[in-house]
Write a structure and sequence with these properties.
CATH topology: 2-enoyl-CoA Hydratase, Chain A, domain 1
Number of domains: 1
Oligomer: single chain
Structural class: alpha/beta
Order of helices and strands: EEEHEEHHEEHEEHHHEHHHH
């Protein structure tokens, strides 16, 4: 039930594909595997661009509620949510562009993962939801990444409408997605074309531009762990524990 992560290299493109049987949710073990795959891709001189994708119909269901049910202490909860903090900071510190290929629904932490990528492609089926508030939590860890991408007003709309889906078109309009296509075949073609083009650019120029894109985010090294602790505290509340157990 830990899921899988595979890194495949082809034509200077490193494709990282993840899977979990529960809607591509992200338990701690899978988060750690994603970090390791990203670090491997970063260290490989033959990889110039990274594409992040998943198997199945949903792109990512966010945090593993099954694992969250077992959290009984602040230390356990902080460690759990630090998995997302480490993943976002790993992407932030990379020198290579990371593209997201989003084929289906994105929930919670998955939205943060998409937002942390440099350029996200989606199909019309890639609806979006931040469901944290509905179970007594808040998207604290991923907020810096999401607000950076779509702005504070759109983030407020998304986080307050925790029980409702936003369309892929909404995501495109707000800037979470850079391009939206009709189906998965078109998605694959479009992502490959963009990745191949970026892989052909001067690596030093790409590195410098990516650094410019991520300016003023160095404080995330301390901010995201602080937010992980806040989320862990909320996760221990009676309201959240009862909500999670009922799901």
């Amino acid at each position: 039930m830990e899921g899988s992560v595979h890194l495949k290299k082809n034509n200077k493109i490193g494709s990282i594909r993840f899977f979990h049987p529960k809607g591509n949710s992200l338990p701690s073990a899978l988060l750690q595997k994603l970090v390791k795959a990203l670090e491997t891709a970063e260290a490989d001189p033959d990889i110039r661009v990274v594409v992040l994708e998943s198997e199945g119909n949903a792109f990512c269901a966010g945090a593993s509620l099954s694992e969250l049910k077992s959290v009984k202490s602040l230390e356990q909860g902080t460690a759990f949510f630090m998995g997302f903090a480490d993943l976002l900071n790993t992407i932030r510190k990379m020198s290579k562009f990371v593209l997201a290929s989003v084929q289906g629904k994105v929930v919670g932490g998955g939205v943060g993962l998409v937002a942390a990528c440099d350029y996200a492609f989606a199909t019309d089926a890639a609806m979006i939801k931040l469901s944290e508030l509905s179970i007594g939590l808040g998207p604290y860890v991923i907020e810096p990444a999401v607000s950076r991408k779509i702005g504070s007003t759109a983030f407020a709309q998304l986080s307050l409408n925790s029980a409702h889906w936003k369309s892929a078109q909404w995501g495109l309009d707000k800037g979470l997605y850079a391009e939206c296509v009709i189906d998965r075949e078109a998605l694959s073609q479009t992502v490959t074309q963009k990745a191949e083009r970026l892989a052909g650019y001067a690596s030093k120029a790409c590195q410098a531009l990516r650094k410019l894109h991520w300016k003023n985010t160095q404080h995330w090294d301390s901010l995201l762990p602080e937010n992980a602790k806040i989320t862990a505290q909320l996760a221990l509340s009676d309201f959240t524990q009862n909500k999670i157990k009922s799901l």
